[in-house]
Amino acid sequence: MGKLTGKVALVTGASKGIGAAIAESLGAAGAAVAVNYASDKTGAERVVEKIKQAGGKSFAVQGSVAKNEDVERIFAETGKALGKVNVLVNNAGVYKFAAIEAFSDEDFDWMFNTNVRGLLRTTQEAVKHFGETGGSIINIGSVVSHIHPAYSAIYTATKGAVDSITGVLARELGPRSIRVNSINPGLVMTEGIKTIGMHEGEFYEKIKADTPLGRVGSPDDYGSVAVFLASDDSHWVTGEALKVAGGNR
Q1: Poorest-confidence range of 116-130, 160-174, 201-215?
Q2: Superfamily for 8-185+222-239?
Q3: For this protein, what is the EC number (predicted)?
Q4: pTM of the model
Q5: Which of 37, 155, 204, 222 is catalytic?
């Protein structure tokens, strides 16, 4: 019996990176896991297969959290395949770093529609499914809302919103036995970070130097934290933004 046996978890944006690591950890702890993806079907199916090979139950479900009709379908398909969701991990997110004058309206809409509106929309849908026993919502924020790196105005704004939303919803949903917390990573070596070249160079070295534990993050650093927040071990924890960044704050 794992800590999450009997629970059904939906992890958005879980085909790779932090989302994939969290999905695999939730599965290893006994949860049945819906692995959501927007476009990377191969990656999502790879995560599902890892969970199943470890003895867990999982399936992949396509959909963009930025689209209302997709959100409704994601939950409907998850319910049919695994049962009613009682753990939601709002991991899906996008980012772009650029000088403030270089950002377009499309950039603004792209980041806010996924990182903020998408998170709120999935939460709206989740609370319909949680039922009387409540559940756990885990938002993925970022330490950027505290360290304020240059060239990140829109992305940091979205993650500042996540911090505030987490606190508001913890108060609002607490009476319904729904806990709401966030995990706020620092720089994590994901495929996306490598694609935009942030895995090396001056910025990378500065982040590493500013981190007391002497390295940047790995996706695997986040799975056990998510398991804690999803499990009854954290029954008295809500409204918290946990900085999981090796001490970089």
Answers
A1: 201-215
A2: NAD(P)-binding Rossmann-like Domain (3.40.50.720)
A3: 1.1.1.100
A4: 0.94
A5: 155
